[in-house]
What does this fold into?
Amino acid sequence: MSNENSHSQVYKLTLKIKRYDPEEKRSWVQAYNLEAGRILRFVDLFRQINDEQDPTLAWNSSCEHGQCGTCSVKVNGKPLLACELLVENAVQYFQTRTFTIEPLNVAPAVRDLVVDLAAAYERIDRVQPYIIQPGSPPSEQDAYPIMPQSLDHYVNATRCINCFCCASACISSHNSFLGPNAMLATIVRVMDPREQEKAKRLKILYSEQGVYRCHSSRACSFVCPKEIDVAHFIALAKEGRILNKS
Amino acid sequence: MISSYFKKPLEQFILSGLGNVPIVSFYAKTRGWPFVIAWIHRISGMLMLLYIGIHIYTLSFLAIPDAYDAKMKLFGYFPFSFLEWLLALPVIFHALNGGRLILYEIFGIRNDESMIRWVLGLSATYFLLLGLLMVMGDQTVSPIFFWLIIFIVGILPGYLVTSKIWNIAGSFAWKLQRITGAYLFVMIPAHLLFMHLQPAVGHEAGIVIARMQNGFIKFIDLTLVIGVLYHAGYGLTAIIRDYLRSRLLQTGLVFLVFLIMAVLGWIGIKLTLSI
It folds into this structure.
């Protein structure tokens, strides 16, 4: 490292990236050594590898502003958004300059760090992440007003971007649990006063694959890049308090 | 940072030590301390289930009092009594942490950092208290008096949890797991404490049989056998469902757990009623 306390500070990093070749169905770990500025993000590092060392490395991103959730990976075991992780923060947090990068384990890898998002979204689709049966607005109004007091109870949950970091970190794995983000998607609609189809949602929520598979390890809240206290909302559902707030 | 969850100097000191244990450090950093605690909860539960099997097997020797006394004599020796003391760690941690989870999930208490501190602090206190009682080994209390008080105290959290979750449209099995948990939260640490007031309470067949012949004690023992086996069976089933992909294997192992619990339950109930 040079220029310790300046903006031009450069870190010598080693990225050990888990690779997967679908043609040969082969997995391996490939190490890349690179120099990077302190405020570069991990998506920038992947791009740097593509540009300077290995154009075949596949990774996913879209908005690169922490709004779409497509660049989720595990860095040294922690699920996070590669577009939000700065080099200096990573060095400080993990106390190392060697990083192991893996795809999230929420769906099969398509190639390298790219996972099959369609397969991952299958769980979200099952909870129907939209208002199934909207209530009619009060008479003589075009829009359905939601009182701020009502919105306050669940507005944080609406910030979920389905990055699947919570699902990847969850102690319940994802064999028989629909996952924290799928639970959040249905809880937020149960709490939404516009949604009239509560019964169908509660049936999914309290099913064998629903909230009872959660053991309140709170890893979902710990890793959530949007800082949503996911475990809090799931606990509200267990307590039966989500209907009262609507 | 790994230690940022807890701020006090003593906590920082303990955590800096734990931070040197690779697997603990890894999960604390990547999933958070409550995740590590959730795993300790599971491991302590499995350790206790193992012990319950041995416990019921050992108690089955009460049918032949001399054989029971001979077996129990072993537990009077140092390594075994030390192991019995160590057993208090998973017991009290599991009980208190289970209480914390019930408060979090059912009573809406979100001050989890504070609750974790209480779990750890009270666990250490109980562990030392039990050790002290074991060293003293000369305490006596009327079994009926002790268990009457403890039963009333144990029924209270059981009732509170029942009244809170009974009407929620959800899994009956899950509700029963939380209700038994709330009851056992008081009863099991109390059971361990009672058994170590003095060695004869648990080690001499004549004294154990005389106590178990009382109808009220029989009732308490039956609630313990049924409550513990249901609670443990549900917990084990949850772990199986979490980690096994194959539905066939899941169903097979869940059935096996049910079978083991049924056999242990049958031995325990038969023993309690036949004495």
Summary: Chain B has a mean pLDDT of 93. The CA atoms of residues 47 and 90 of chain B lie 7 Å apart. Chain B touches chain A at residues 1, 26, 29-32, 34-35, 37-39, 101, 104-108, 110, 112, 164-165, 167-171, 174, 238, 241-245, 250 (CB under 8 Å).
